[in-house]
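thread: overnight batch results

M.L. [08:02]
morning all. the overnight job finished for the chain we discussed friday. pasting input first so we're all looking at the same thing
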Amino acid sequence: MSGVLLERERVEQRVLGALRCVDATTLVPLTEPLLLAGEGADLVRNRSGLYVIREWTRLAAHAPAFEAPPAQPPLGSERLELSLRDPSGRYLPRRVQLALPRDPQPDHAADAASLFRPVDVPMYPSPLAAVAANWVVLRVTVRETASGDALGGALLRVVSNGSVLARGLTDWRGEALVPVAGVPVTTWSTEPGAVTVTQIPATLEAVFDPGAGRRASSLAVRGGAAPAEQPLVDPEAIESARAGLPQAAGPVMLAAGRSLSISLQITLP
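M.L. [08:03]
and the structure it wrote out:
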């Protein structure tokens, strides 16, 4: 065997990108495996907990092109839609769209669209999720004004002084858990005459896309049997289109450790 070089296996493959699922409240990466699926996509979870897109039928020529990717289609011109589900039920299912191909240039590794940077995907807690003692906890119910139907897949935003402090989604019953982390026990007041305050004013917004979300009658909600198809929406898409979508809003006062129950009604066309 002297002078003989043995090569057991050689694998060269170009990947298309990766996703990192994080808790929407803490932004901590999730360690428990989720179920991801996309039409024509081959995904695998690696040892770092990233979901790597190895192949996609619409970018079939990229997989074997290890040294240099094809010039077509242009960077970011294709959209891969993926569904994400948590088998444990602690996080609500959602959709996400990933712009492909991603930029393969090592010099651009710090850019958001780089192939070398995973895309962070926030996962929103279900009403059953655990919360920390010092969080503000908003338990929200969203209904349709005329019928009283539960609106599943509604996007919730907690906004204060022009900044979004937290986001959430409603489940099929129109119920949501929206934790707000980082609210201080005391903070500087913006009102005259007061130096510090123990609560801050905010607005709770609910936005519903009738074409993506789901309605459930009050009778179905009382029955308690979850439908076969759960709401599966893309929160980023709803937020981008929110100016033209049905919505409702109400004031809330946020204080560390406080739990609030809030009901909002959205009028649908």
